[in-house]
Amino acid sequence: MASKGKALSALAARIGGSILGGADPVITDVTHDSRSVGPGAMYVAIRGLRADGHRFVSAAIESGAEAVCVDHATAATVPELVVDDTRAVLGALASAVHDDPSCSLDVIGVTGTNGKTTVTHYVESIAGDAGVVTGLVGTIHTRVGGVSLPATLTTPEASELQRLFAEMRDRGVSLVAVEVSSHALALGRVEGTRFAVAAFTNLSQDHLDFHGDMSAYRAAKERLFTQYDVGTAVINVDDPTGARLASSYQGQLVTVGRDGDVAASHIEPYPGGTRFRLDSEWGTTTVEAPVLGEFNVSNLLVAASCCLVVGIDFGDVVAGMSRVAGVPGRFEVVSGDDPITVIVDYAHTPEGVARVVETGRRLTGGRVIGLIGAGGDRDREKRPAMGSAISRADVAVITSDNPRSEDPADIVAAVASGVDPGVEPVIEVDRRQAIAIAVEAAKDGDVVLILGRGHEPTQDLGSEMVPFDDREVAAEALTRRRKSPDYRGRSGSMSP
To answer: Average pLDDT over the chain, rounded to whole?
Structure first.
């Protein structure tokens, strides 16, 4: 049932704030966006990276705010809830107003550099296959009971997230898989959330433009396990950071990895999937899953462990693993039965790129052609390392990604500067043309990896967002290739 709201005085008592103004209105919603204020809402003025929400207090009141939460008195014409840090209390306020929805859900929060999207989708797929009504919150989209909604942030702002949890609870959802980004943890977007499971995949260089250094980045990820109410932690101990985190974790813990509580052995690829032996305290069996690459086996084990921890039957989990749904733009094969294999993946970190290239090599006796770029206005330090990682392919194509406000040619040059000695990359700034070059260069039996953007339907050019889906562009290139006179048995080009 939907919440009837909370009196402002009750909210103040919960977070330790003080009220200016004599009225005690009932608050039925909390928002940090003055444009979304409606009847019964309290506007929380947070200090953002680009704007101070206190500038919009008057606009929120004009839109009908019953109260405002501020970090200093503003002489507002409605009651003011004054606190030291408005961002820090946003989640707790929203959770309280909506009757603490995460306490009525099995919320599975997944953090890590790579694999968050895949793990949350696998959790949703396995649990849904077992008959559980699920929710999903993440990079690609949000789903409530199977109905998709567009996603704007990997992890929504705290007020939006708690409202979404309440909607899920009210619509009969019982399990929610949530991607928890390092930004979300640093900015408190999951405050007010109780996690039935907190899962960790891995850590490698990313987002240093925001966090500053790897130590701060790692600390942000670890907050999920040290600063929140967590039922059970599921940690990949094959990752060094995961192993360190697990060794010091004080709560209920399930480890995943070669020597973990949940482990895979005798890993063997087969056309379209991977076969492995699953060992766990819940049972042991052989699994045949439609996933490619050992990194995706690891992701699948983390997801399966999360489902087992919340009480889904072992047999149902194993059945779900064998039927797990693919994830858009995550090692997605887009070439059908073409004699070359074209795969689109979101890999956008040096470690992720290297892992995908390694997996591509195991799929073929032919060559691996890898295409990569780097995002503009983001972590500049990783760009040369991206060039080094793509050097592991037989042919390395370097191109534009989402340049945003930067000159694409400058970003491409930075990536190319890290290419390993002796490797001659193919440089093409125009991504559409670069994809065409990579596909046209392929011989029958080769694997083409188009990396960095995955599912993204648009390219960010800074001044505008233009339609650009790597999967569609690759399909167009494949169509042109098929129409060529020497389609079967073609020799390709750019042979190293």
So the answer is: 93
Of the three residues 42, 68, 97, the one that is the final residue of a domain is: 97
Query: Rounded to whole angstroms, how far apart are CA atoms 119 and 300?
Result: 7
The whole-model pTM stands at 0.91
| pLDDT reading at 380 higher than 70 | yes
CATH code where residue 434 lies: 3.90.190.20
Cα distances from 44 to residues 55, 80, 189, 371, in angstroms, run 11, 10, 13, 44
Burial 265-284 (b: 16+ CB within 10 A, else e): eeeebeeebbebebebebee
Could you report the per-residue pLDDT of 266-278, keeping only the tens digit for each?
Answer: 999 998 899 999 9
Residue 481 dihedral angles phi and psi, to the nearest 5°:
-65, -40
Contact 280, 321 (CB under 8 A): no
145: which DSSP letter?
A: T
Mean pLDDT of 448-452: 98
Domain count, the chain: 3
Closest CA to 291 of 307, 260, 269: 269
**By the 8 A CB rule, do 198 and 123 touch?**
no
Using alpha carbons only, give the angle 244, 247, 250 rounded to the nearest 5 degrees. Answer: 125
**Among 12, 226, 199, 222, which residue's Cα sits nearest to residue 115?**
199
219 burial class (0-12, 13-18, 19+ CB within 10 angstroms)?
Answer: middle
- Is the domain of 115 the same as that of 249? yes
Residues 366 and 430 in one domain: yes
Listed in sequence order, the DSSP H helices in 227-262 are 240-248
Do 159 and 122 lie in a common domain?
A: yes
Q: What DSSP element (H or E) covers 175?
A: strand 175-179
